């Protein structure tokens, strides 16, 4: 349900999203859950609980209240605790030695088959089966429904020896198997009552993402015949570890951080997080903190970029050690078209599982069905709740302006609902009964037709699959630049996130709405939530060939081999990142841009984090003033290049330093190929890199020069590629202007 809300909220009523609203049910109204983050684990871990307790006693001034206020001690992979605090206690703690940050725990939101074929990974793809079965993909999500055919463990051996995680019990959970080897839940903020805690997925989102990343082959999977094909994940032989951190009210920071703490210590290889919220300082963002520690331990974290597009500067989860994923379309679209009684045909986009029982139905609209004694504030044209007369809609197809009218019409006994959308109709949403979404202009045609006759009629057809040009970035996918570090190009990459068929949970229905009785094994969903596990699966696939590659190397391989997106040229890389993933090519990238923890640290220093905070995050003494060299825009060896200029008048002049590591052929020569952004000059020195052995590193310098950007442009886009004829190692170069966000 959360995923659908997310997409609907962001697509149709952006302002409803309120990330600050606490969903936390506390018996003490004033105390609120806070996270006290203390960075790296100290050498001596035994006394962590005591340290946390003592800090709390000092801040609160009362041992008993301190004990009752503590929610959780983090301490398997990093140091910190969660507690219910009053604002002044939080302030007092934040001033203490050894504490990086103290921040309110907030609620974050949750943000196929064909999709893997579309990415060039056919069912017969060459796999490193043995290594793949040792890969563990962790998902921080709504849990998992293990009985799904996508998690059938026939042919799987016992979990890899490195696995230290566990399988919890509760509710209707039937236990783990050799496919889903771990299932834990985190309910530290009491999002649900203790008797409601369970690792089982009652939402569908977690089952969908887990099966997209690593589900096994399931033939003839479909949603009532829609999108039929063989469902599978990116790494069908890999293992799944599920960490349930999202409940019906959302995903709490305290739980997300606890799940990272556990997953890193449990021995997982890749972490997939389809959760997002408003962006905040890296030291106060549990996903940035958790993924930093994961990265230090060699674990890549892949995150959804957010569903707040097409607006600029909405990208979430943008820390440079995270792989941030935009959602793209695949080469099919779901049409649920309309035919009117006068023969007019109207194109509709929806997941409508219902075939019309009797052809034409009488047609009306919300305005003509208004209940004049009903809800005074309701908008009848939009079919708002309480605004319509039962007798006017019963047995009819109703045209409602805007989204969401279908539940109201359905509850009043309507035969079906036609809804309109101002946004790009690139995403098909499930309707609760017969229904579809059309453009606003086509909606006016329907109104006109209704006005023109006393016997208006219409039929809405069941969804059929239509080929479509692809990939394009989905309209809802969040756009860059990142507000926190604008010179790092974010999102990083795109992957399919529109109309994705994957496994679903038996404990919910297609829409999750009241009155929906369709329990399904596979469902169609859209969101950057769906794109994220595609990249997690692809990263796991790369890791099965290169088990020792660093998280940054895996990320670089996926980015530099991705395919630039061409369909909506105006959107450029601020929508798509480097391009659409191409997992097969990413196994052989030739060169990688590697980044170690040290570089992330100097990046943090440059971002203005204080030495003491940086030291605590890294666990080593660090002096930010020691960074003297200017190493690129943000001091990072990033596989893409982004320069943000201050205004249209500024002359463009910037130097970027990069180092590539040879992971291709020992003796090889790479020549640079530059496509300069229009009107700019790009000089790369040296422009030939000669390697004599594997793992050899070579550095180069990129100089970007030009007159100011013209006023009518807000970005310029180009690229730089290293090529040895076998490999093409491509990095986008983007220069962008500030926009008025
Ligand atoms: C188990 O599932 C059934 C059917 O969906 C539901 O009615 C019941 O409340 C669930 N039990 C628990 C403990 O969650
Ligand atoms: C109109 O609205 C009123 C007040 O909500 C309600 O009692 C009544 O049943 C509605 N009429 C019809 C025909 O649905
Ligand atoms: C009713 O809702 C529609 C669709 O959201 C909107 O276009 C229209 O302006 C609204 N009408 C009123 C009177 O608020
Ligand atoms: C349909 O008729 C209503 C009521 O007379 C009017 O307000 C509306 O503008 C008409 N719509 C169209 C598209 O002609
Ligand atoms: C910072 O640089 C100074 C002077 O070069 C050196 O003595 C010190 O060890 C450095 N500190 C750290 C934490 O790197
Ligand atoms: C950090 O380094 C600078 C310059 O190297 C030095 O002046 C300063 O004292 C150092 N600070 C700490 C806390 O070591």
UniProtKB/TrEMBL annotation:
InterPro entries: Peptidase_S8/S53_dom, Peptidase_S8/S53_dom_sf, Peptidase_S8_Ser-AS, Peptidase_S8_subtilisin-rel, Peptidases_S8_3, S8pro/Inhibitor_I9, S8pro/Inhibitor_I9_sf, SBT
Matching SUPFAM superfamilies: Subtilisin-like (SSF52743)
Keywords in alphabetical order: Hydrolase, Protease, Serine protease, Signal
UniProt key word Protease: yes
Alphabetized Pfam families for the sequence: fn3_6 (PF17766), Inhibitor_I9 (PF05922), Peptidase_S8 (PF00082)
Every Inhibitor I9 domain range: 34-107
Keyword Metal-binding applies: no
Classification via CDD domains: PA_subtilisin_like (cd02120), Peptidases_S8_3 (cd04852)
PROSITE patterns to which the protein is assigned, alphabetical: SUBTILASE (PS51892), SUBTILASE_SER (PS00138)
Positions of the Subtilisin-like protease fibronectin type-III domain: 636-735
GO biological process: proteolysis
Active-site residues from the entry: 141 (charge relay system), 205 (charge relay system), 529 (charge relay system)
Molecular functions per Gene Ontology: serine-type endopeptidase activity
Gene3D superfamilies with a match to the protein in the record: 2.60.40.2310, 3.50.30.30, Peptidase S8 propeptide/proteinase inhibitor I9 (3.30.70.80), Peptidase S8/S53 domain (3.40.50.200)
Family: Belongs to the peptidase S8 family.
Protein name: Subtilisin-like protease SBT4.15
